[in-house]
Every structure is written in structure tokens, then in C-alpha cells.
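stage 2 :: seqdesign
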């Protein structure tokens, strides 16, 4: 067996927690994160759900990742498929309430970012690869020689601009998440003693090579 059921289960749990954090920020009704602005714009333009837009773009980004030479893991595929699915389940069934005021909205945004950080640490720590969008940042940084921070900023400015044009929701929440999301993640990881750079990932190519060698 390539991976234990426990590790696969924890990847799925982490992705669900991450999706719940995204929905918290959406239901804060103060604007969404740059990538979600983009997905909302696609959703409203094409007439599909937000989750379906997330899955579709994730699929295209994985293809781009592979083309650019970024290795992907099974968690990359699961990220693409499950986060969008969980977002739709949570939103279509109204499982997370809407904020009733600006104050509650800000609290929901902050809570949502923390919850996303917990979900991220949960699934990344299993060493089965990162999400498609994270992979894109890494491979672009490697290809261009620029820092992850610069690549992240350029990508987010690009996707949020397209998202706004397509009708995505931009607001104070978008600004909070764009400027303070990374800091909140960093602080959370320090508190829970999670070092993302210490995680050793095994990729799909490694598993296929292992299967070929056994055969």
C-alpha cells in the first residue's frame, strides 16, 4: 500500500477544514480572498457553482504546473477535487451562517483564515503534495528567480483584477486577507509548532516509479 488509510483520511479532513475556512470568509459578506474573487467571477459569468469554478480552475492550473515542470502529489489532485466539492456542500446547505454585522463579519474573516491555516497544516503535514495554486507559485518562483512573496503578489493582483471584471466580490475582507493572511498563517504555525518547510513530500511520479520497479 502506497499510503496508509490514516494519512489519506487526514488529507481529506484537512481539506474539509480548509473549505470550511473559505466559506467562513465568504459568509462574512465583506469581500473574499483574491482567488475566491476570481472563482466567483467565473461562477457568475458561466453560471456554475463556486465549487465547480474552483475545481475547473484547479484542473487547469494542475495542467499548467505539470507543463512548467512542477511535480504534483495525490493531495494536489484531492485538493482540486474536494475543496470545491466541500464548499458547495457547505454553502448550498447553509451549514455556516451569514454574518449579521460588520463586526461579526470581521471576526468571521479572521476565524476563517485561522481555520484555513489549521486545514492547510493538517493536509500538508501528510507529505502528499501541496495545492495546485501553491504549486504554481513555487514553479513560477523557480522559473523566474523571483521570491515566493513577489510571485504571490503578482498572481493575486492578476486573479483579483480578472475576478472583479467578471463580477467577483471585492471588499475590505479581500484587503485583510491579501495583506494579513500570510502573517496570520505564520503566527498560527509558530503557535502549533508546524514547520511547512520541514515536510518531506512524495509525489505521484515517485509512486509510479516505485510501482514500475516492483513490477
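stage 2 :: out
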Amino acid at each position: 500500500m502506497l499510503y496508509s488509510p490514516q494519512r489519506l483520511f487526514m488529507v481529506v479532513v484537512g481539506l474539509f477544514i480548509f473549505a470550511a475556512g473559505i466559506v467562513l470568509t465568504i459568509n462574512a459578506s465583506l469581500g473574499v480572498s483574491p482567488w475566491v474573487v476570481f472563482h466567483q467571477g467565473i461562477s457568475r459569468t458561466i453560471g456554475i457553482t463556486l465549487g465547480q469554478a474552483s475545481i475547473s480552475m484547479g484542473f487547469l492550473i494542475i495542467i499548467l504546473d505539470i507543463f512548467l515542470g512542477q511535480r504534483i502529489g495525490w493531495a494536489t489532485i484531492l485538493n482540486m477535487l474536494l475543496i470545491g466539492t466541500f464548499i458547495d456542500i457547505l454553502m448550498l446547505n447553509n451549514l455556516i451562517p451569514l454574518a449579521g454585522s460588520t463586526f461579526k463579519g470581521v471576526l468571521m474573516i479572521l476565524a476563517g483564515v485561522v481555520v484555513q491555516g489549521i486545514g492547510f497544516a493538517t493536509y500538508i503535514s501528510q507529505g502528499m503534495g501541496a495545492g495546485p495554486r501553491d504549486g504554481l507559485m513555487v514553479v513560477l518562483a523557480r522559473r523566474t528567480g523571483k521570491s515566493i512573496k513577489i510571485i504571490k503578489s503578482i498572481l493575486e493582483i492578476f486573479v483579483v483584477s480578472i475576478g472583479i471584471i467578471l463580477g467577483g466580490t471585492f471588499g475590505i475582507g479581500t484587503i485583510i486577507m491579501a495583506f494579513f493572511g500570510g502573517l496570520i498563517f505564520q503566527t498560527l504555525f509558530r503557535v502549533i509548532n508546524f514547520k511547512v518547510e520541514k515536510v518531506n513530500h512524495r509525489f505521484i511520479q515517485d509512486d509510479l516509479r516505485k510501482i514500475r520497479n516492483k513490477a
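stage 3 :: structure notes
- The mean pLDDT is 95.
- The chain has one domain: 5-207.
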